[in-house]
Amino acid sequence: MQAVLVHQFGGPEVMTCQVVERPEPGPEQARVKIEVAGVNFIDVYHRKGMYPGQLPIILGVEGGGVVDAVGPGDQPVRVGERVAFAMHQGSYAEYVVVPAWKLVPIPADISTEIAVAVMVQGLTAHYLTRSAYPLRVGDTALIHAAAGGTGGLLVQVARLCGARVIGTVSNAEKAQQARSYGAHEVIVYTEQDFEQEVKRLTDGRGVDVVYDSVGRDTFDKSLNCLRPRGYMVLYGQSSGAVPPIDPQVLNAKGSLFLTRPYLGHYVRDRAELLQRAEEVFGWLRSGQIQARIDRVFPLAEARAAHEHLEGRHSKGKLLLTP
């Protein structure tokens, strides 16, 4: 089968599309014939070696397609079933073997492309707003990268929770997109100091929570945007890792809370996974949220997809097709 591998950590140029042996499912596993793979910043982290991984690796932690083989034992899925998955390595390929419990059945009225578009990013928006910091009616949330794939869904879900949403983006076009997702206020951080703007928009009070996927470039000012006992939810590091922090800083800035969550820790078993996925699918069906697909690249052009993502050109979900 064709797959995109990394033999050494580095930039997009280290990815190679090559022929490898098709995997066979073992006990409690199923093989999925991939129709669509999602492209996420976590793939960039794996490619660069920012997250632990043994080389060579097949990139991609999100995909969808049809179950074409199952291993021995009782299985929660069957051959021929359309499924999607998140947080399992190896989706940049024509086939992938996945623990069967991680496979989410795709409802008949939702396309595989849309289902994959909300696996990592939709489930992330769900756990961030429902669990990492459960948003309540009347809360104010600052969401960085509010026009991106995850940010756009996060804005929509935060609105569902009854929160006031302040988003940050890099340009006027993305500001318009963030508003279309439902952001009440949008700050173009290349033209305005987002810390000063947040303080102005909140009359100096600060926000209840910051959802930050950017990391190094936004972290310090994000802390300054929080009200006393506010929550800093750092769920990504697209600009680079945040340097070590003295916990005393959290005290000095108002007894702040800091968490660095990871999706895998919020879908730890099949029951939790399905509960979150089914609620996200329900929001899609009812029209309460929309998943916007930005571009679809052939598998062989995975490098271009990563360059598009890292260049901050993305205005929605990026997908690969074998």
Binned, the helix content reads: 25-40%
Determine the strand fraction and express it as a percent band.
Answer: 25-35%
Mean pLDDT: 96
Number of strands: 16
Shape: globular
Radius of gyration: 20 Å
3D architecture notes:
With 322 residues, this protein is of the alpha/beta class. The chain has two domains: 2-118 and 291-321, Alpha-Beta Complex (Quinone Oxidoreductase, Chain A, domain 1), CATH 3.90.180.10; 125-263, 3-Layer(aba) Sandwich (Rossmann fold), CATH 3.40.50.720. It is built from ten helices and 16 strands. The strands form three sheets. Strands 3, 5, 6, 7, 8, 15 and 16 form a seven-stranded mixed β-sheet that branches. Strands 11-10-9-12-13-14 form a six-stranded parallel β-sheet, with helices on both faces. It has a three-stranded antiparallel β-sheet with strand order 2-1-4, with no helix packed on it. Strand 12 (207-212), helix 7 and strand 13 (226-234) form a beta-alpha-beta unit. It is globular. The N and C termini lie close together (10 Å).
